[in-house]
Design brief:
elongated; mainly alpha; 8 helices
Length: 235
Amino acid sequence: MADAHEPTIKMSNANLNRLRAAVLGANDGIVSVSSIILGVAGATNNRGAIFTAGMAGLVAGALSMAVGEYVSVGSQRDTEDAYIAVEKKRLRTNPEAEFEALAAAYEAKGMTAKTAHLVATELTASDPIKAHIDAELNLDEDDLNSPTQAALASLVAFTAGGIIPLLAVLSVAEHTNRVFVTFGAVLIALTITGYLSATVAKSSRRRAIIRVVIGGALAMTLTYLIGRAFGTAIS
């Protein structure tokens, strides 16, 4: 029964990793854009200037996240492809030695030599390449991360998070209220992302929420104070 559910568990874990990355990207967007907005709000009352700075931060941050994720995942994918290519070549040129390496890999996981050789024999008969890549490299050739998908996911997640403080700024005309509304909207959004990230990771929701809310509040407060100090000094 456990074996029948194994593929589902593996796929679920892959999806959870993608969801976790999306939640973290949204959190980055919320904190980054709100900090820029409040930093500028500390220096000026001009809503147009505040919104423009926030929009610039949103676009720059989303593109930066996308490019960074593409480069990072692309480098990882190149390395994984190279490992897989080497493993395939070894299987073609020296299948006997690779069979023993596969059996040794299962022995290292706690199987007896007899059981390890039996498992290696059955897996080699079924799909030798898949068996070796999984046991020796802990990879699945059919489930490698896509740099393009990772970049798009980061761009969308950052944008979704960053648009929240932008909408908050537009919703209020009075400067003082604008700052408080933006601050409050961001804290609510961070509470949600903290809750979601903890749910995905199956960790303490309370601890995750406190961590992201305090971090976001500190970032916004400091940038607001810095903006106010520099704005007053320059003007």
